[in-house]
Every structure is written in C-alpha cells, then in structure tokens.
Amino acid sequence: MKIQLALDRLEIADAIQITRMVEDSIDWIEVGTSLIKEFGMASVRELKQAFPAKTIVADMKTIDNARYEFEMAFRSGADVATVMGVSPLVTIDICMEVAARFNKKVMFDLLNTSEDQVRELMNYRDAIFCAHVSKDEQEESGERNKGTKNGALFTENEVQVAAAGGITIESLAALRKSLNPSVVIVGSAITKASNPTQAAARLKQAVLKGE
Amino acid sequence: MKIQLALDRLEIADAIQITRMVEDSIDWIEVGTSLIKEFGMASVRELKQAFPAKTIVADMKTIDNARYEFEMAFRSGADVATVMGVSPLVTIDICMEVAARFNKKVMFDLLNTSEDQVRELMNYRDAIFCAHVSKDEQEESGERNKGTKNGALFTENEVQVAAAGGITIESLAALRKSLNPSVVIVGSAITKASNPTQAAARLKQAVLKGE
User: Fold this and answer.
1) Which of B33, B34, B37 should be substituted to probe chain A, the one whose Cβ sees the most A Cβ atoms within 10 Å?
2) What ipTM was estimated for this complex?
C-alpha cells in the first residue's frame, strides 16, 4: 500500500518544505487542486523538479477540456492526473487516450458519483479508482472515508483503488478491510501534525505492519 | 441579454489583447478554467486589472474546497465564480454563503447534471444557471447548445439563465426561443474569428435586434 501525500492550501515553497520533512515515509506526492488553481502549472513543475524520483499526482479534477488539461499536466511533470467520475464519458475517454500516449496514469475522482456511473467506469481497467469523501463533506458534515461504498464493486472487478478523505492511522485498519486500497491519500493528518516527520513515519509503519 | 466572452487556451497577454479588440461589444469577461489551471489566480487578477469596469467571471469549476476556492477567486477580482452543479449540495451551500458575504454572484455550471440535480438547485434563487454543453461533447460528439434541456424548468422557476457551448450568431434565435438566457457565453466564435472585432460587433447587433 502506497502513501500519497496531498498538498493543499499551501504556498508552493511551504509545500516543498513540508514534503522534504516526510519524503522518506511517503510514496506519491499530490499537487492539490487548490495549489493548481492558485498557482497554475508552476505548482506541478516545481514539485516535480524538487522531487524528480517521486510519482507526482496532479489533482486537476478535470471535467471538460480534457485533452488540453491532461497534456498540460503531463508536460508539466505529472505522472498521474485526476478526472472527475461525474464527467461525460467522452471526457473520460480523452483522458485515457492522452495518458496512454504519454505513458502516464489516470485517477478517477469518484466524488459524488452514482453507483451507475461507477459501474460504467469499471470498463476503464487501467485507471486508478479514488473513493473520495470531499473536504466540504468532511468539514461541514463530519463525514470520513470508511470505505463502505463501492467496496464490493472494486473487489469483484479487481481494479486499483485509492482512498481519500480524512484518513488517519486510526481509520486505516477499517479502510483496509472494506476497500483494500493500494493507495491511501493523506493530507492534513500529516501536513497539519505538530510533527509532520513523526506523523508520516508512524503512518508508514502502520502501513508496513498491515495494521 | 449580455454577452460573456469566454477566454480559453490562451496566454494571459493574448487573452487581454483579444479582449481589448472586442471590449465595446461584450459585457462580461470569463477567465476560462484552462487559464486558471495553467496560470492560477494571476489570470483573474490581470484580467480584472486590465478591465476594471467589466464583470469578471472566474470559471473555477469548483467541486470541493469551496470556501478556499471562492474566497481566492473573489479576492483576486472575480465578480462571479462558477461551481459544478454535480457537486455535493454542501459545496453549493458554501459557495452561496461566500458569495453573499463578498456581495458577489455564483454561477452553476450544469454540465452533466441530472434533472433531479437541477430541480434541487432551483432552491438557490440568487444563482445564475448555466446550461452548458462541454467542449469535449462539442468537439468529440458534435453537440451544440440548442437549449432544449431544462428550458421549461428554468422558465417556470424564473431563474437567471446563461447558455454556453458552441454558440454562434446562427444559433442565437433558437436559443432565445428555448432558453431565453440573460447571458450568452461565446468563446471561439469570437476568439477564433478571422476578425474578432467584427465578429463580436455582429453578435452584439444580433443580440440588440433580438434576432
């Protein structure tokens, strides 16, 4: 199981600094949508430049104009880019095509998708399926990703799963049971910890021990 | 009926230059999602600085992290910001709250919304409802906004309507009949015209004449 560090609501320099503190414990680096909308592709370029050996996920949250946005992300150094699962299927098709051409990966952000939409997306076997409880749902409704939704669908289709949304060391065991994600996406549990290096190291240990 | 010029797939300097050529004929300036993701909030700031008297629409396409994104857009000079109609309702609520606090406007991008979702959104009377055929749907499937979907729903609820997606002088009359939008959003029919000044002036004339 890989740990994807989500960088949001930060200046680029601070995002680099915090990643530097935890880089031994994390696998993938997510340039959050808030960085992309605030600073543009400079955010992706600078993170890739600072951590060339890491997998960079550009959280583009594409929902239209897929060719332009995905080519832009990959050319800026992203190894994975996200598209919304609620997009028209033609948009998903373009993302898959561009990623294949660049030999990169697509992550579906399943935020607010219906079960029918998720079933349709199962046809795209090369994508990573990100089960996502949004920041707004967390902060306003107190929801957390417990991984209950769509778990069976993912398992029976043997797709690669990522999980995001308020994940902590404490919620890891339940999440593993219900979703068995190959990527856990963790933001504030690391970036807002009083000691990010220690928080990331502990999370890494829990992942390695299979807790 | 107002004309909103959509600026996409352009450098900021070129976007300003083309807007300068047509500013007498257009009412609102949309900083497209592609500019925001490529250049960040600098795109919104520079367009507002260049055209302080115009209404600036930041096509944020927010779907999460609404407070952060909307405050960022309004502080950068946007007068209107967009949120996806397919977002969780908690996200929509936050957008409305932030816009009210800043005395600004919210535009709902109805791309790929179900009829049920549109009905729920009708409760937000202060928003502008943008009926949107996406770039990907246009370019890959040849779709155009003919305004047939949701037209009756908008009329009976008396909400403010915008229309986007492949709109030209030729399609204006049909669109007026079916959707009666108060804002028509036009991008490439102006920005990619051989003579943008003339194309915008003709569109303005057609709008004034009620064609």
Assistant:
1) B37
2) 0.97
